[in-house]
Amino acid sequence: MRPEELGAALERVGYFADRDLVLSLFLALELEKPLLVEGDPGVGKTEVAKAVAAVLGYPLIRLQCYEGLDEGKALYEWNYQRQLLRIQLLRDRPEPAAAERDLFSEEFLLERPLLKAIRSPGKTVLLIDEVDKSDPEFESFLFEVLSDFQVSIPELGTVPARQIPVVILTSNNERELSEGLKRRCLYQHLEFPDPVREARIIAAKAPGAGEELAAQVAKAAAYLRTLDLRKKPSVAESLDWARALVALGHREVSPQAVEATLSTALKHRADQEQVAAAGGAGVIARRAGGER
Fold it and tell me: First and final CA of the chain: distance in angstroms?
């Protein structure tokens, strides 16, 4: 699949990627390298992995990162309840050492996302979401997975990947990631889509909005993102905004429509007050082209 074919395939599943992102995805697939996607919250980083999985027809395996995430939650755990039950059943077994070895066999292994992707018999898309929220120690643990596509389990030894997964990592850039992690990945920074591309996204994913309303919502969202808001409206919130307008029967982004639906795009009271101080619904409508 050439880059232009990949871009067209992504559009068919509802993801409108710019050329830079398409090229990065193409290279990640060709070189079998992880792709690190950074950008502000809401620009569509997680959707990249979902769209790639849909295009390729691979299962999506997601690891949501957070502070305190450790190997046990990301890689594997032992099924302690089944182990205890087996101990009770084999309490009188004449070979206790052999019984103990049996307790740490694959029968008692609980796969978590990383091990599940490594051991999958078929190709998968592994999404390591918001890796910047994890601890630096967890980053170091990822090196083995991302370098050699294998993991080490003390009781079982080294487990190599049956199929190298397509790996996409996302980061909100809340902290600087290590050079070691970046060195193992290709890199792409995502910005919010321009109004033209966002209008295409809205028109595709909010049936009933129509091209004109989609274009107005995209322009309104782009204007709001120029303000110094606590939380700029995400692409998903632009979609919700368009759907709310359609649900209420509004065919344009008029001042009345903005007043009725702005809470779908701005989720903080301070942001709503700032927008009001900047001219409120009337300014948004003019910026969107809904008030002529």
Answer: 46
Question: pLDDT for 202-231, tens place per residue?
Answer: 999 998 899 999 999 999 999 999 999 999
| Beta-carbon count within 10 A of 49 CB | 24
Last residue of a domain, one of 157, 175, 190: 190
**How many residues are given for the chain?**
292
What lies within 8 Å, CB to CB, of 249 at 6+ separation is none
Pairwise CA distance, residues 14 & 2, whole Å: 19
**Can you give the CATH number for the domain in which 26 is found?**
3.40.50.300
* Listed residue (77, 67, 152) closest to 113, CA to CA: 77
- Number of domains within the chain: 2
Q: Are strands 125-129 and 166-171 parallel, antiparallel or unpaired?
A: parallel
